[in-house]
Design a protein that fits this description.
Helix content: 25-40%
Bound molecules: zinc ion
Number of domains: 2
Oligomer: single chain
Distance between the termini: 67 Å
CATH class of the largest domain: Alpha Beta
Strand content: 15-25%
């Protein structure tokens, strides 16, 4: 083991943790040794290897992004926007997902994962939860990029499809998804604690309507045995909500509660179409069940708001005592945008300004995520916590003037204002440069991958429509 050096950053503003909450420390110093913070305060007497003097910077905890699909999210761009079929209650899941997924090549997945790692670091994510089915490739890029990652290998009992553009049908696999589940559990055992424990795992049964009750119960038991978190897409569309009522006579969250699935180690994405809200128009206290069972919600505001769907409401879930976390899900994979839209959309839904505050959404993006993962050493700048920190430049055109740094970050910051990122004690980004990642080369790779995907979409679409029929461009082509 090399001698672990003590490093420090001295900054004009530090968002430090004290007595159970974030506090604003002016002109503070944060010292870390190896991957652990060993001191936070005004001064430090001990010996230091390297000190970064940054009077013009704001140091905050890194952001925890609890729901992402690195292998596909950048490929949502330039295609899914402005599209949301009314016959599926605005959800794009039933038509667009199958059309797109079959058209992404293996190289396209790799290009998307590498691009995503760069995008995530540049926009403030220090811990990522990867929900999808390309775990090995995500682990590889997490190891190279320096991201802290929770990675799963998703599985399910069947899949949905449509063959007429208005009804949702299900095709069930012969083994109920058992082989994929076994592989996912083996994936956890093989990868838990890699990269000096920077990489961990979890179980990700895909969706509440595509995983059988039997496989969900098996997943619940395995998560307890393996001591890993458990994630599930739930209450993410009206068709899914009504399908579970058709099958079980209960809302999805009521049903998950009945089969013993919910709990403090469970993170539901997205829990928006829930009983007790106008989206579901169904009498059930789903939000109360989430609160009472300690179940966590991964709130990815943008993937819904983009289509005209909004949680009713982030602030009401918080007030009821649900542990809320923040996630990006689709593109842009920016936690800055995710915090901002969460705050603003909740205010709109509530017709109130003083709810879903900068404090609330920043807490959700840090302490909320840490709680969902069962970690008291993440999401905070405190002695004993992991050294995951962001340095924000306070002098940029969108940042100045700074009085309350968290309000500036939530309501005004752009990714250019994020100067540097330290993850697990290592400078993963310095002055907006992520070591080992070439933005131009990655964008070129992604463009090629997207063009291949756009060209192949009619194969997976039930009606054989091409990209321009599925998603016409904003303006027609100019004809010289
Ligand atoms: Zn998802």
């Amino acid at each position: 083991m090399p001698q672990m050096q003590r490093n420090a950053v001295r900054a004009g503003h530090v968002i430090a943790f004290q007595d159970g909450e974030h506090r604003h420390l002016r002109d503070g110093i944060v010292v870390w040794q190896g991957n652990e913070i060993i001191h936070v305060g005004k001064e430090f007497d001990g010996e230091l290897h390297a000190v970064r003097d940054a009077p013009g910077m704001i140091v905050t905890p890194g952001l925890i992004n609890t729901h992402a699909h690195l292998s596909e999210s950048p490929l949502d761009k330039s295609f899914v926007e402005d599209r949301g079929p009314r016959q599926f209650y605005l959800s794009g899941l039933i038509e667009f997902l199958p059309a797109r997924d079959g058209a992404i090549t293996q190289e396209g997945r790799q290009a998307s994962i590498a691009f995503s790692a760069l995008e995530l670091v540049r926009t403030g994510t220090t811990t990522i939860m990867e929900i999808g089915a390309f775990g090995d490739a995500v682990i590889d890029v997490a190891e190279r990029s320096g991201l802290r990652a929770y990675v799963a290998q998703s599985y399910r009992s069947g899949r949905w499809y449509t063959d007429d553009g208005r009804s949702v049908k299900y095709q069930w696999f012969e083994d109920d998804g058992r082989a994929a589940f076994d592989a996912a559990a083996a994936f956890c055992e093989a990868n838990e604690g890699r990269a000096d424990d920077r990489i961990r795992t979890f179980l990700s049964p895909a969706q509440v309507d595509t995983v059988s009750g039997e496989l969900l119960k098996r997943s619940r038991a395995a998560a307890t045995d393996l001591r890993v978190p458990l994630a599930l897409h739930t209450s993410q569309s009206v068709p899914e909500f009504t399908e579970i009522i058709r099958r079980h006579g209960k809302s999805p969250i009521e049903w998950l509660h009945e089969i013993g699935f919910l709990g403090r180690d469970v993170i539901l994405g997205h829990a928006i179409i829930v009983g007790g809200t106008s989206w579901a128009n169904f009498h059930a206290d789903d939000i109360g069940i989430l609160a009472d069972t300690g179940t966590n919600v991964a709130h990815a505001v943008w993937v819904f708001a983009r289509r005209g769907i909004a949680m009713e409401s982030f602030s009401k879930y918080l007030a009821r005592g649900v542990n809320m976390t923040i996630a990006t899900d689709t593109c842009p994979q920016s936690m800055i945008e995710a915090m901002r839209w969460t705050a603003v959309v909740s205010k709109i839904m509530d017709r109130r300004t003083e709810v879903a505050t900068a404090r609330d959404v920043f807490n959700a993006a840090t302490l909320g995520g840490a709680k969902a993962l069962g970690r008291d050493d993440l999401g905070r700048i405190a002695k004993g916590a992991k050294a995951d920190m962001l340095l924000w430049d306070k002098a940029g055109i969108s940042m100045a003037p700074v009085r309350d740094p968290i309000r500036n970050i939530v309501y005004s910051a752009q990714s250019e204002d994020l100067h540097s990122s330290i993850i697990d004690g290592r400078w993963v980004m310095r002055d907006r440069q992520v070591e080992g990642f070439d933005p131009h080369a990655l964008a070129g790779r992604l463009q090629n991958a997207a063009e291949q995907m756009w060209g192949g979409m009619q194969k997976g679409d039930w009606a054989g429509r091409n990209i321009d029929e599925l998603s016409p461009e904003s303006f027609p082509e100019f004809r010289p």
